[in-house]
What we know:
By secondary structure, this protein is mainly alpha-helical. It has helices spanning about 1-35, 45-55, 65-80, 85-95. The radius of gyration is 15 Å and the shape is elongated.
Amino acid sequence: MEAKFKQNERTVSRIVDSKCVGWLTEAEKCREMAKNPVTPNDREAVVAGLKHLREITDFHQWVTADVRGKTAETMQNLKKLVNENEWPVLLARAGFNPTDSK
């Protein structure tokens, strides 16, 4: 019974990871779209990227450590595109609790 449970758990993680990889890819696309060397970076694209990452947090308990790490890395890369004082507002606009992710 325990072996069957572990097998099912791995299957669920693989399915969830494959969905989350799609959201990560979309978040990275948004990060690239947000970059602008001439004018301020596009905040709307940053929020869109954060919204994709928000989807992943709903499945946090089932994703692998690799996906969790890539999610954190992508979030940090988005954060680098904006001023520190803007970050909590952008997090809130994307559906995060800004006090949880400073």
